[in-house]
Amino acid sequence: MRIYEARDYADMSRKAANIISAQVIMKPNCVLGLATGSTPLGVYCQLIEWYQKGDLDFSEVHSVNLDEYCGLSPDNPQSYRYYMNEHFFRHINIHPEYTFLPDGGNPDPVKECRRYDKLISDLGGVDLQLLGLGLNGHIGFNEPGSAFEKETYQVSLTESTIRANSRFFDREEDVPRFAYTMGIKSIMQAKKILLIANGEAKAQILKDIITGPITPQVPASVLQLHNDVTIVADQAALALLAHS
Fold it and tell me: Once rounded to an integer, what is the mean pLDDT over residues 6-30?
């Protein structure tokens, strides 16, 4: 596990974007595993800037996203497909048909999860998986207590995650209660993993996943078992590690 300290959010975003851009340059037809939420926004902005300068070419890249809400159409502003289109895909030259997310509109969870697992397998697996970090240690929508052996599955969101995500909705009751997510096993099958974290609110959980026991109660702690994990975090998020 490699840990890189960044000065602040902007520096974290640049350092993480550097790692992703190196992957794209080294393997132009790579498969990128992508994440949503507020933390990756700076990474996507930096990658867009480098693409617009002519430094990056995404024309052969395929992408698979970690998760999608159940019951939201792709054109719903709160769907993760909409997020990815608005914040990344439409600003670069990735082919829309090369970008994949779980289909939140599929009412058959068994069929949809099998489809998504097969899709990832048919692509040859994920070369580099980008992850954010929840305050309770969740990655994707794998909440505390999630079994490590799961691949893509339908998850019932916890009240804490619903509250955290409610800032993106008009009302908390509008937040979907279910989502499709790549499971821990799916995430761990990525060849490389890049986790990003910023802010003092992430300091305790970041320390826990790096130095604490490996337990389903802290889902991201399983990353200790992966042979190629890079963590990029700012000084505030790494503060407790510096004094441990």
Answer: 98
Whole-model pTM? 0.94
| Distance, CA of 95 to CA of 210 (rounded, Å) | 36
Catalytic residue positions, numbered: 67, 136, 138, 143
Looking at the predicted structure, is the pLDDT value of residue 129 above 80? yes
Q: How far apart are CA 16 and CA 195, in angstroms?
A: 9
> What phi and psi values does residue 69 have, to the nearest 5 degrees?
-65, 145
Question: Domains in the chain: how many in total?
Answer: 1
CATH of the domain at 75: 3.40.50.1360
Q: For residues 82 and 57, give the distance between their C-alpha atoms in angstroms, rounded to a whole number.
A: 22
Taking alpha carbons only, the member of 237, 206, 234, 210 closest to residue 14 is 234
Whether 73 and 105 have beta carbons less than 8 Å apart is answered as: yes
Query: Which residues on neighbouring strands pair with residue 170, listed in sequence order?
Result: none
Q: Is the predicted pLDDT of residue 96 greater than 50, yes or no?
A: yes
Domain residues for the domain of 144 are 2-242
DSSP-based three-state secondary structure for 66: coil
| CB neighbour burial string for 22-43, b if at least 16 within 10 angstroms, e if fewer | ebbeeeeebbbbbbbbebbebb
Predicted confidence at residue 244, as pLDDT, reads 46
Question: Who's near 231: CB < 8 A, 6+ residues apart?
Answer: 1, 2, 3, 4, 195, 196, 197, 206, 210
pLDDT value, residue 158 = 80
- The three-class DSSP label of residue 151 is coil
pLDDT digit string, tens, across residues 173-201: 888 899 999 999 999 999 999 999 999 99
